[in-house]
Amino acid sequence: MKEEKLFTEIGTSIMGTEVSQLFGKPALKLKGKAVACFFENEMAFKISGDEHAHAISLSDAKLFDPSGKGRAMKE
Questions:
Q1: Looking at the whole model, is its pTM more than 0.70?
Q2: Is residue 25 very low, low, confident or very high in pLDDT (cuts 50, 70, 90)?
Q3: Where do the structural domains in the chain lie, given as residue ranges?
Q4: What are residue 21's DSSP bridge partners?
Q5: What are the beta bridge partners of residue 43?
Q6: Separation CA 13–CA 17 (nearest Å)
Q7: C-alpha distances in angstroms, 38 versus 51, 64, 66?
């Protein structure tokens, strides 16, 4: 899928990140911790605090729920 390839290409250009997998999908890690992933043709980012509040207030933003069972991640 070309979107996954683009995600990986951009990710490798960010200093300090490594490409990995999360839930079997492409992910970016920084210092060994997942910070972003590409899941079901959408990008998910791990953010917190004021940045999280702002991001979730944007139209079409939603919490990341990889199980699809209403158990979204908090960050």
A1: yes
A2: confident
A3: 2-57
A4: 26
A5: 38
A6: 8
A7: 20, 11, 11
How many whole angstroms separate alpha carbon 41 and alpha carbon 7?
A: 10
- The encoded tokens of residue 69 equal 């069972």
Identity of the residue numbered 36: A
Which residues in 8-23 are b (16+ Cβ under 10 Å) and which e?
eeebeeeeebeeeebe
Q: What digits encode the pLDDT tens for the residues 42-75?
A: 889 999 999 999 999 999 999 989 888 989 888 7
Sign of the dihedral defined by the CA atoms of residues 54, 35, 64, 10, in that order:
positive
Token pair 């290409």 is at which residue?
A: 9
pLDDT at residue 40 greater than cutoff 80 = yes
**Residue 40 has what DSSP assignment?**
T
Q: What token pair was written down for 64?
A: 């990341």
